[in-house]
Amino acid sequence: MLHYREPSKSVKRVVAGLAVFIMALLALAACSSQGGDDEVDRRLAESFLRNSPTFRFDGLPDSVELMKRADGDCETCVVYTFGFDSSHPGYGDRTDLPLASVVTAHEAVVSIEDGLVTAAQIDNIWDVITQSPIARTVTAEEGTSTPVTALLDSPFELNIGQEAVFGDEGLKITFVDVSEDSRCPAATNCVVSGLAKIRVDVVAGERPLGMHEFVLDQRTVGGSARGIGQYVFSMRELNPYPGTATAPYAAIFVVSKVFAV
After folding, report:
1. How far apart are CA 106 and CA 90, in angstroms?
2. 248 by DSSP, 3-state: which?
3. Is 53 helix (H, G, I), strand (E, B) or coil?
4. So what's the architecture of 136-257 in CATH?
């Protein structure tokens, strides 16, 4: 017949101590693993930034600083924000472009998922992966609905969401939205010239003339013009440029009449 012998108190204490020790080791290993993974991700993000065309062109090696680490949208996602300086303003490889010798501070945000870079941008202006300006879109809700009185053949400013009225002509034009603004910021050189696209709604008397798109290409001087009905609409400017003021968009237009009826 077998008899059960109760373990002594000293044995119980040893077993309990071993259990606590093992649990502590497991917790430490888990923390070390997580910390190791995080360090790998951080180094990957920083290496990606340092090897980007913008940084390779004129980034100052000793200026890179980790400013922030944040969890991403998934369990294996993490976002790193770095600060760094470059010798000139601008983005990308600006070889053969005119440059201003001004040390420029930048902020780069690099997203990592499962050990891979999924997104990266500089100053919320430049997409490091596509090597192009980040396109911005704005709707009329950000603008104003106060009408402005305009004259034919005279430049006038039209804010987003605003309507211009041409008195006796019975002509109305409304700045509806900015469908794309990927222009390089003012006073900055980019290897890719972006576009600005806006849409306007035109009404002549009681007759709708539809929605029309105007495109400004940074490589083209003189603006964008098109005929609508018996009028020629010319968009001369669109302000502000990306990376400058935060004021609502405003377009400069000139409208001319092709012939009288």
Report:
1. 10
2. coil
3. helix
4. Sandwich (2.60)
**Neighbour tally for 106: CB within 10 Å:** 20
Three-class secondary structure of residue 228 per DSSP? strand
Indicate the helix (H) or strand (E) that contains 250: strand 250-257
SS3 35: helix
The Cα 188–Cα 218 span in angstroms is 12
What Rg, from alpha-carbon coordinates, does the chain have? 30
C-beta of residue 242 within 8 angstroms of C-beta of residue 125: yes
Burial class (CB in 10 A: 0-12, 13-18, 19+), 182: buried
3-state secondary structure 136-186: EEEEHHHCCCCCEECCCCCCEEEECCCEEECHHHCEEEEEEEEEEECCCCC
Q: Give me the amino acid identity at 48.
A: F
Within the chain, all domains assigned CATH 2.60.98 are found at: 136-257
pTM: 0.64
Per-residue pLDDT 10s for the chain (261 aa) are 445 455 555 545 544 555 554 455 455 444 434 445 789 999 999 999 999 999 999 999 999 999 999 998 888 899 999 999 999 988 999 888 888 888 999 999 999 999 899 999 999 889 999 988 888 777 766 545 688 999 999 999 999 999 999 988 889 999 999 999 988 877 677 777 788 999 999 999 889 999 999 998 866 666 788 899 899 999 999 988 876 666 789 999 999 998 654
Please list the residues that pair with 210 across neighbouring strands.
202
Number of C-beta neighbours around residue 74 at 10 A:
10
Q: What is the 3-state secondary structure (H, E, C) of 13-32?
A: HHHHHHHHHHHHHHHHHHHH
